[in-house]
Amino acid sequence: MRVFLTGATGFIGSHVIPELLAAGHQVLGLTRSESGAQALRAAGAEPLLGTLEAPDTLVAGVEQADAVIHTAFDHDFANFVANCEKDRRVILAMGEALKGSNRPLLITSGVGMGALQPTDVAREEVFDADSHHPRAASELAGEALLQQGVNVSVVRLPQVHDTRKQGLITPYIAIARAKGQVAYVGEGGSRWSAAHVSDVARLYALALDRAQPGLRHHAVAEEGVPLYQIASTVSAGMGLPLVSLRGDPEVADYFGWMAMFARTAMVASSAITRRRLDWTPTGPDLITDLAAMDYTAID
User: Fold this and answer.
1) Each residue of 88-136: pLDDT tens digit?
2) CA-based Rg of the chain, rounded to a whole angstrom?
3) For the segment 271-294, what is each residue's pLDDT rounded down to a tens digit?
4) Are 283 and 198 in contact (CB under 8 A)?
5) Residue 70 and residue 92 in contact, taking contact as beta carbons nearer than 8 Å
6) pTM listed for this prediction
């Protein structure tokens, strides 16, 4: 198939490209720059210039493809709500171009969408359409398209990592550097699910080849890594003191926009996904990558 891949030069998308090529697909990759276009050509993909801010440029890619994988997302978390709304518009625009065909559209969401309560283990069969979480906008767009006959399925992401990036832990490291200490909330007992980027990329390729309307896949290798373990590993790697924050004012002052995530458990199961896609994660675990990092090289 000829696959249109958004986010093709990004952390996850750049790892998805070789998986798609190895499976015999052609890749048309979205990029916003000529330097990105050069990188895509070097990776064996064909570039398409466009941006999330201009959904019409993405529609041009959809019209040239047999299938679409949407990994692009604006990761300016200080404007998280607006960026989730932008993602909704992009998904709807691409889906509109897919109507009347069975061409698959694989969109991206977060594992938190699979939990009805904050303490629940997120599961693939669960989606709270009434959720107040901003990221629900992406899956609501997918559900709307599904009702209109579009072949939409979802990959939900945990903290995706290697020794360069680790999802929300990357800005967490930047905050720690700025504050001069590594903090966690309370006892640090909340847990975050995680998966190595190589395993996540392989899951996207498997999910595309076995695409069925309405399926939700969890790209989860570790159901939940305790935040205390994450914080203590980062503290040792950065050579900064480890502290516990217990009052709301000090949590908000330290974490800023990230406070809502620092208090939240994001535990998720991938049992259904593993059976459905015959997917077995093999990459390093989160703590191994955090311990192996060169923290002086992280912005």
Assistant:
1) 999 999 999 999 999 999 999 999 999 988 889 999 999 988 888 899 9
2) 19
3) 999 999 999 999 999 999 999 999
4) yes
5) no
6) 0.95
Classify residue 12 as exposed, middle or buried by CB count within 10 Å of its CB (0-12, 13-18, 19+).
buried
Q: Quickly state the pLDDT bin for 240 (edges 50, 70, 90).
A: very high
Q: Residue 15, CB half-sphere, CA atoms under 13 Å: how many?
A: 16
Check: CB of residue 50 under 8 Å from CB of residue 8.
Answer: no
Sheet order of strands, 2-6 included: 46-49, 26-31, 2-6, 67-70, 105-110, 152-157, 216-218
Distances (CA, A) of 175 to 169, 172, 207, 220: 10, 5, 35, 25
Residues ≥6 apart with Cβ < 8 Å to 56: 93
Beta carbons within 10 angstroms of residue 208's beta carbon? 24
Q: Which helix (H) or strand (E) holds 223?
A: strand 222-226
User: How much of the chain exceeds pLDDT 90, in percent?
Assistant: 89
User: Which of the 8 DSSP states describes residue 113?
Assistant: G
Contact 89, 24 (CB under 8 A): no
| CA atoms within a 13 Å half-sphere pointing along the CA-CB vector of 25 | 25
Token digits for 170? 């990357």
Instruction: Give the H or E element holding residue 143.
Output: helix 136-147
Whether 283 contacts 242, CB under 8 Å = no
Which residues contact residue 203 at a Cβ distance below 8 angstroms, ignoring those fewer than 6 apart? Answer: 155, 217, 219, 273, 277, 279
Average model confidence (pLDDT) across the chain: 95
Of 149, 223, 236, 234, nearest to 191 by C-alpha is 223
Q: Dihedral angle at the C-alpha atoms of 92, 97, 98, 101, nearest 10 degrees?
A: 150
